[in-house]
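S1.2 Input.
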Amino acid sequence: MLKAEHLRKQFSTVLAVDDVSLEVKHGSIFGLIGPNGAGKSTTIRMLLNIIKPDSGVITYGGQQFSDAVRNTIGYLPEERGLYRKNGLLDTIIYFATLRGISPNEAKKKGMEWLERFNLQTYAKRKVEELSKGNQQKAQFITTILHNPDLVILDEPFSGLDPVNQIVMKDIFNELKQQGKAIIFSTHQMETAEKLCDELCLINRGKIVLEGTVKQAKQRFGTNALHLEFDGNGKFLSTLPFVKKAIVYENYAELSLNGDVAAKEILAAVLPKLELRKFEFVEPSLNSIFLEVVGTSVEEVEKEKNELTQKQNAPIPSIKNPEIKKQQISMLIGLLVAIVGLIMFISGKDSGMLFGIGVLGAGVSFFKLQKLKKQLRLEAVNE
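S1.3 Output.
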């Protein structure tokens, strides 16, 4: 159905996608997984011809992208793309007519899908009146109403509660049974593990793992142990037979060094924890990610969020003497410019005072911005 070979895309100094190849077949669910910022959305936008790859080839059934191909694709972007002031059903009908569906048919199908998502009572409401989760469901309806052969979904579970995530997963499986090809990107490893026939795990623009879920687990063996317990499990990562450990409040997933007898593990654990579950299992996708990349998805997300918070943190400008100085200089320049403008209008000045004020304010403004940028960089690098 879709084949991409050796895709590469660079933005300025950032190599967003580096030699990514994938193939998606009819009647399958393909997971494009990895943390935020890994290159998933950039890859999707190249597949949709929204942006052009610097190199690489993309074909749909052996054909290059065209308007005919475009109409066989349904795309759910991560960002909302609905007209917020329009009615919900009217919006669904509008997007369907863009795909060649008659208004009457679009209305009928649209109401069927609204009922499926329990949104029929919102049909006449404006899109902006819907919650984030309901807007996500509405956008999903516009994605599949024209019965596309290929469905591409970028973070489709964003904003959905657990009940509606189950509804969405059921629809995925229905589309699969109908022979549709489905690509969805996510950083939720557990969801990908349950849904995907094949997957491509991307980190920092590169493929680090690909194939079926079964192949991925076979590659990393079955030497994993799941524990549920009461007590403090932080010590589990320090045990000599534990290679890697993901430890939560009352749950842990351990990757073991070679073959370890159950009695040896129990002897080390039971004195400190009250066990509710002790099970040797195949490693989860999240633990495989930990093995391949060296850090878990949750840790990558945490680091990214912390960096974003630092970058977006307000600079305490009023407390910084140099910033305060530039702010005062800019204010004085603006006041001089205003006085000069008044004098120019009344014929008492040639406009020179106005020009001096504008120039002074402008110089102070640029110095202020440069200083704030410098302080923000220093804060990020702390």
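S1.4 Remarks. The mean pLDDT is 84.
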